[in-house]
């Protein structure tokens, strides 16, 4: 392959210069990463989940290391939608693609918040966090019940005309029906997966390591699970999928594209290397060149199968 590779993709109606986004809650409100990474080098970023009012998270300890990953029980600590729109968005350079993440405790909260965010000309799309694994009210309830999820997406859809993405929970037995109800309710795209519900124990103190007891596991430890769910969801729906979960290198990102993702998000690895997303974007381009793809978009679903999958 000698000519230039086209890196641009379209995800949920949002044009991206490349398929690399950063994951909600691991990239602040974007500007924190400015000293490390030109945000115009990546497709865009998803901000920390926002609520209508500012919100404190759980008491510490609320993060802990685990093999090949971390547990967190931050909860949705955030500055609230007003401060995001008035202070954080204007601080970003022109040309940065912003996807705003919404969290609420009932569908009306989500709908009001999503409408306010999607009305901003600086917001390219909204991602509904229907999957926080450690918030009692909201989040996980919607992500685990297909009827509740469908109602939530419908309600938000009625208030949002721009790109609407739903972030799904991995804490379900079957992911395909959850993806299907999002499509039926009018979502433009799906992000998966959020962190996997988990816990860890300190045997010396005989206490859970997290004050909240339960947390969400993220990082390379969860990548094969995320990959499996992206694969299953991409076969169940026609709307595009954004793959997230343990991506630490360009090769990891390519695996998600091959399994059907149109775009990917870089999460926990941002804490290890704040330049990771830029390096992953460059590495995907190099992979496409090396393998004779003229468009990065053609990697989506390009997995070679010798036999039909078992399920
Ligand atoms: C500290 C931390 C905070 C997070 N906060 C949010 C959040 O506010 N909203 C959300 O949708 N996901 C949140 N997530 C989940 C990530 O966006 C991502 O879905 C998950 O960590 C899996 O990807 P990873 O293994 O690459 O980190 C958070 C993850 C971590 C580690």
Helix-strand layout with pairing:
Blueprint (H helix, E strand, L loop, with lengths): L8 E3 L2 E3 L3 E3 L21 E3 L16 E4 L2 E4 L8 H8 L9 E5 L4 H12 L4 E7 L10 H5 L1 H14 L4 E4 L8 H9 L4 E4 L3 E3 L2 E2 L4 E2 L6 E4 L4 H14 L4 E4 L5 H9 L4 E4 L2 H4 L3 H15 L21
Parallel strand pairs: 3-4, 3-16, 4-7, 7-8, 8-9, 9-10, 10-15, 15-16
Antiparallel strand pairs: 1-2, 5-6, 6-14, 11-14, 12-13
What's the short version?
This protein is of the alpha/beta class and 311 residues long.
Overview of the structural elements:
The protein has 311 residues and is α/β, with parallel strands linked by helices. It has a single domain, classed as TIM Barrel (Alpha-Beta Barrel). The chain is 29% helix and 19% strand. The chain has helices at residues 81-88, 107-118, 140-144, 146-159, 176-184, 223-236, 250-258, 269-272, 276-290, and strands at residues 9-11, 14-16, 20-22, 44-46, 63-66, 69-72, 98-102, 123-129, 164-167, 189-192, 196-198, 201-202, 207-208, 215-218, 241-244, 263-266. The strands form 4 sheets. An 8-stranded parallel barrel has the order 3-4-7-8-9-10-15-16, surrounded by 6 helices. A 4-stranded antiparallel β-sheet has the order 5-6-14-11, with no helix packed on it. A two-stranded antiparallel ribbon has the order 1-2. Helix 4 packs parallel to helix 5 (176-184) and helix 5 (176-184) crosses helix 6 (223-236). The longest helix has 15 residues, at 276-290. The radius of gyration is 18 Å and the shape is globular. It binds flavin mononucleotide. The site of flavin mononucleotide has 24 residues, from strand 6.
